[in-house]
Amino acid sequence: MKLVDYTDSQLAEAVSAFDARFGEMERVLWCLSVNSRAGLLAGESSPALKALVWSIKGWWGVQGVRSETKAQMARALAESLTWSPVLFGPVLEYGAESARYACDRVADLVSDSMALGVPRREYSLASKVLHWIMPWRVPVYDSFVRGILGVPASWDHPQAYSRVAAEVFALAGTMSGDSAWMGSLEPRSPLRALDKLTWWLGGGSTGAAAGVRDPWQIPRQLGLRCP
After folding, report:
1. What is the pTM of this model?
2. Of 28, 182, 185, 210, which residue has the fewest beta carbons closer than 10 angstroms?
3. How crowded is residue 125: how many other Cβ atoms within 10 Å of its Cβ?
4. Which ranges in 42-135 belong to alpha helices (H)?
5. Do the beta carbons of residue 20 and residue 210 sit within 8 Å?
């Protein structure tokens, strides 16, 4: 069954179930994302940005990532990409260049991270981190997304992510209004809702993933104010 075949009621039910299990983790990741913005605009790798990278890695089970990647990818984000406030905000419509922009940014972060010492192409982690920083502009890439969108497992990451981005933006283009099924948690972006759906409907609902006992420990330790 394809995502376009689900009714709004079914979509709302899946998003609601995801949020019920992982809502506090979602709120903390959004807190870390918002608190990363000032450092990114200044070209600095902040504690909030490093915490965002490592929380995504740990909470969502990105396998085989070395501990040094935390600082290396955060530095690549801050120093190698050009940031402006508009990149953090909503996109009301998705045109032909949306998928290309996402693919280029993920590829840039992968290569820039490797230039700083990351030993392999961390496509999944890079897409997830950029997704949380720019939730209206970069779709998530992982096995759940590939599976539910029918992307062949044999495809190399750049080709596979290009297909994922094209299909996710095509879906988002039909969902970019004020759709109640996307739930109430920020960021209320079609791409965030679609990631929840692909994870939940792609097998996450029957898996053993468990919520973090106290995700707010991280913002408390960093002394962050959260939206």
Report:
1. 0.94
2. 210
3. 26
4. 47-59, 69-80, 98-115, 123-133
5. no
